[in-house]
UniProtKB/TrEMBL annotation:
<protein>
    <submittedName>
        <fullName>Putative ABC transport system permease protein</fullName>
    </submittedName>
</protein>
<feature type="transmembrane region" description="Helical">
    <location>
        <begin position="21"/>
        <end position="41"/>
    </location>
</feature>
<keyword id="KW-1003">Cell membrane</keyword>
<comment type="similarity">
    <text>Belongs to the ABC-4 integral membrane protein family.</text>
</comment>
<dbReference type="Pfam" id="PF12704">
    <property type="entry name" value="MacB_PCD"/>
</dbReference>
<dbReference type="InterPro" id="IPR050250">
    <property type="entry name" value="Macrolide_Exporter_MacB"/>
</dbReference>
<feature type="transmembrane region" description="Helical">
    <location>
        <begin position="423"/>
        <end position="446"/>
    </location>
</feature>
<feature type="transmembrane region" description="Helical">
    <location>
        <begin position="680"/>
        <end position="704"/>
    </location>
</feature>
<feature type="transmembrane region" description="Helical">
    <location>
        <begin position="379"/>
        <end position="402"/>
    </location>
</feature>
<feature type="transmembrane region" description="Helical">
    <location>
        <begin position="732"/>
        <end position="751"/>
    </location>
</feature>
<keyword id="KW-1133">Transmembrane helix</keyword>
<dbReference type="InterPro" id="IPR003838">
    <property type="entry name" value="ABC3_permease_C"/>
</dbReference>
<feature type="transmembrane region" description="Helical">
    <location>
        <begin position="334"/>
        <end position="359"/>
    </location>
</feature>
<feature type="domain" description="MacB-like periplasmic core">
    <location>
        <begin position="432"/>
        <end position="645"/>
    </location>
</feature>
<keyword id="KW-0472">Membrane</keyword>
<dbReference type="Pfam" id="PF02687">
    <property type="entry name" value="FtsX"/>
</dbReference>
<feature type="domain" description="ABC3 transporter permease C-terminal">
    <location>
        <begin position="684"/>
        <end position="795"/>
    </location>
</feature>
Length: 803
């Protein structure tokens, strides 16, 4: 019986070769996209899976109700009190300065080592990398202890047995207490060396408001993280009771004003995608879900093609089914036979998709900067499960439909003139065109939004502005800046020099509360040199710039941006009359100028309130001077760059790499994510249209073939070719019109939800919906009319000789 089924299947594949190829092509493309996106998703979910304590380690986040935002940091007093007062807590670790780099000197060599991490004592208790040498007991207990990776050990000493050796960083000697091997699995925590930020910890020991650390808590086995979150509210209240006395507030008013109002713990292996806010960047689970959904839609489109083509071929197999039923075949055996035929096509497509995925994987890895390989059993498991699902979806409907034919009716030969399956085919075709229309609408809106962000006036000019980062070996970095500023101006090709903390494209920033009377907001810090805002071509809205000839401009005078004024609810004139007290200082600051908003961090988010002040105005900000920025003349940029680099490496930081970038190019990197979304949406859009149009062509071919006798009769009665073409295509055009009209509210809702993530967004345009309708009508007419035109050339004798 099975042999007979296989013979019938291959006869039908050969007879309907175009439909077979289209089904194979569509399913192969759909399954390939599904597997690539699934591998990307699995790779993102695999972070921190190597850690044996991952189930009990949680990342700490704060929640500020007033601004409805999550914070990614914690202060030392909060962490210490959590250990003391919350019974679920077993240990914690604080991290800062991830990715730090130093010039290290050993008895063998001097080398520049990147990838360092500053952390508290318990780091290796929560992140137990494989120990190669030394011990993790008291590994960071002493101020001058350091643990290094095997890579760093080989780089500095040429071997890994280096416990007890000395590494000199700046003027401090560090003793190596452990050598570890970094995990092979994905991890956001992969330091090449680890040491304790002693001075920073001493300064922050009693400072509740210094949220300078990423916090990880190790809970006791079986402990409920929600219980931790509830008990942490008591610690928040304890701090509020202590600090509110000074300002004459109630503790609850203090919490509502300054926060945090609540906390959130996210499991270690979930922070890459599912945390609200992290030290390593904001997770973007939504983008993966969108891509995965789109890849599944392509597979569904392929299944729709299968259903449509199988039901359209029904008349060709009607007599076969009638004969089989007449000789005793049951409905269930017929269903199994048709399911087997579908399964064979699906398995063939699955094998082709595996080959195509392997072929495309290097390009996919390059696109996402990954190293994914096809060695995860889950990829094969889930993709084969998708094959089975497609087999059932695309096979069961036509199989049931075909198996329900009445033997007497089909043997009489009347089936071709019956209307069985028309509503089914039309309904499924409509669904296919709805999906196609949504892809066109979505693709046009995504392209429009990305173009809008790229063309938007950012409020400054970073063109030809070169930012050079200082190394981390500066005792007094502001003096270094002042020393080299005038010297570097003398280099041929340098037009101007300045410094700004809130530099576009930089990921180094800080913020704090700004208080006025009983109101408080959070604002970014913009310590700077006098000329920085003019240097960046920022526009002054009202007031004046800081003036180096006025002593008050390095004592208590500041500028703010429009967002700062708006957040307080002031008019411009009110801003000049009011003084604010920043959380980072104990004196009032007077606003002397308001600048136009300019986007520092990301084109997706709104401009934050920023306060600009001279770096000497606040003592601790002097130590945060981390860059010097140069505006280059346009005539010889390459030559100027070489001269600057030579000067820097010979006179400023010998032995350190020249860490620099052009601000406009660095800021442009913030667009890369959205450009990739745009590219992927365009590719998926093209795939959807190709699969849909090929299916439409095959379906229209089969349906028009069933009407060839009708065409022959109408042509004999004098109908013109144009009339016949319009008559044959009209049905498909109506289906297309209905599908687009149904897709419009769906597309509007989903794309509006997507646009909500952008502070700077387009108004929902009408033209993508109109263009989708016009484009699909044109494509439908073009595809169907090809076969309709061929039908007008029908051989009249062939179809009318027995009439």
């Amino acid at each position: 019986m099975l042999n007979n089924w296989l013979k019938i299947a291959f006869i039908n594949y050969k007879k309907n070769w175009l439909s077979t190829i289209i089904n194979l092509f569509g399913l192969t493309i759909g399954l390939t996209g599904f597997m690539l996106i699934l591998m990307h998703w699995n790779d993102e979910e695999s972070f921190e899976k190597w850690n044996p304590k991952k189930d009990n380690i949680f990342y700490f986040q704060t929640y500020n109700k007033k601004d409805n935002v999550y914070g990614a940091a914690i202060s030392i007093p909060y962490a210490e009190n959590a250990l003391k007062r919350i019974s679920e807590v077993q240990d914690y670790v604080l991290m800062m300065n991830d990715g730090s780099a130093y010039k290290m000197t050993t008895k063998i060599k001097t080398a520049y080592q990147q990838g360092g991490l500053s952390a508290s004592d318990s780091f290796f208790n929560l992140f137990p990398f494989k120990l190669v040498a030394g011990s993790y007991k008291d590994v960071l207990k002493n101020d001058n202890n350091i643990a290094i990776s095997t890579t760093t050990a080989k780089n500095l000493f040429g071997k890994t047995a280096v416990v007890g050796e000395i590494i000199k960083i700046n003027t401090t000697n560090f003793i190596i207490t452990a050598v570890y091997e970094l995990p092979e699995g994905n991890s956001q925590v992969k330091p090449e060396f680890v040491f304790k930020p002693v001075d920073q910890i001493k300064n922050d020991k009693e400072q509740w408001g210094n949220f300078n650390y990423a916090g990880f808590f190790l809970l006791k086995k079986g402990a409920d993280p929600r219980s931790f979150e509830k008990k942490f509210l008591d610690i928040i209240m304890m701090r509020a009771k202590e600090n509110s006395k000074e300002g004459g507030m109630t503790p609850q008013r203090y919490i509502d004003t300054y926060g945090p109002n609540d906390t959130l713990l996210t499991p270690l292996d979930k922070i890459k995608l599912h945390a609200e806010s992290t030290w390593f960047g904001k997770p973007d689970f939504k983008s993966i879900i969108i891509l995965f959904t789109l890849s599944v839609l392509i597979v569904i489109l392929s299944a729709i093609n299968f259903i449509n083509l199988k039901t359209a071929q029904a008349s060709q197999r009607a007599k076969e089914i009638g004969v089989r039923k007449a000789i005793g075949s049951t409905k269930s055996s017929l269903v199994l036979q048709f399911l087997m035929e579908t399964f064979l096509i699906c398995v063939a497509a699955y094998l082709l998709s595996l080959a195509l995925t392997e072929l495309l994987l290097p390009s996919f890895n390059k696109f996402y900067d990954k190293e994914i390989v096809m060695n995860d059993w889950r990829i094969y498991y889930y993709s084969f499960a998708m094959v089975l699902a497609v087999t059932l979806i695309s096979g069961l409907i036509p199989a049931t439909y075909l198996a329900n034919f009445k033997a007497i009716e089909t043997l009489k030969g009347n089936f071709a003139r019956s209307k069985h399956g028309i509503w089914l085919r039309n309904g499924i075709l409509t669904l296919q065109l709805i999906i196609s229309s949504f892809f066109i609408i979505g693709g046009l809106i995504v392209n429009n939004q990305v173009k809008y962000m790229m063309d938007k006036d950012l409020g400054y000019s970073g063109k030809q502005v070169l930012l050079i980062n200082f190394s981390e070996n500066n005792a007094k970095p502001w003096l270094k800046y002042e020393r080299i500023k005038n010297e570097i101006k003398k280099i041929e090709g340098v037009a101007d020099v300045s410094y700004g903390e809130a530099a576009p494209g930089s990921n180094r920033y800080s913020n704090s509360n700004m208080d006025y009377m009983d109101k408080s907001i959070f604002a970014q810090h913009g310590s700077m040199d006098y000329n920085y805002l003019q240097f960046m071509d920022v526009k002054l809205k009202k007031g004046r710039w800081l003036n180096p000839n006025l002593a008050s401009d390095t004592i208590a005078n500041v500028l703010v941006n429009e967002a700062f004024v708006k957040k307080f609810g002031w008019t411009d004139d009110q801003a000049f009359k009011n003084e604010v007290r920043p959380g980072f200082d104990n004196k009032p600051y007077h606003i002397v100028g308001i600048v136009k908003d300019f986007n520092v961090f990301n084109p997706r988010i709104d401009v934050d309130p920023i306060i600009f002040f001279h770096y000497r105005e606040t003592e601790w900000k002097r130590y945060n001077v981390y860059n010097i920025q140069l505006k280059l003349k346009a005539d010889d940029i390459d030559g100027t760059l070489k001269r600057i680099k030579t000067y820097w490496q010979n006179n400023v930081e010998p032995g350190y790499p020249f860490d620099s970038y052009f601000i406009d190019k660095k800021f442009a990197e913030s667009f890369v994510k959205y450009q990739k979304q745009q590219t992927l949406f365009t590719i998926l859009n093209a795939m959807v249209l190709m699969v849909a149009l090929l299916g439409l062509f095959a379906l229209s071919s089969l349906m028009i073939e069933q009407k060839l006798k009708e065409v022959a009769i109408r042509k004999t009665l004098g109908a013109s070719d144009g009339t016949l073409i319009v008559g044959l295509t009209k049905q498909f055009l109506w289906i297309t019109l209905i599908a687009v009209l149904i897709s419009i509210p769906i597309g509007y809702y989903l794309m509006n939800e997507w646009l909500k993530d952008f502070a700077y967004r387009i108004d929902m345009p009408i033209w993508p919906y109109v263009l989708s309708l016009i484009l699909l009508l044109i494509l439908t007419f073009a595809v169907v009319s090809i076969k309709a035109y061929q039908a007008t050339k029908v051989n009249l004798v062939k179809y009318l000789k027995y009439e």
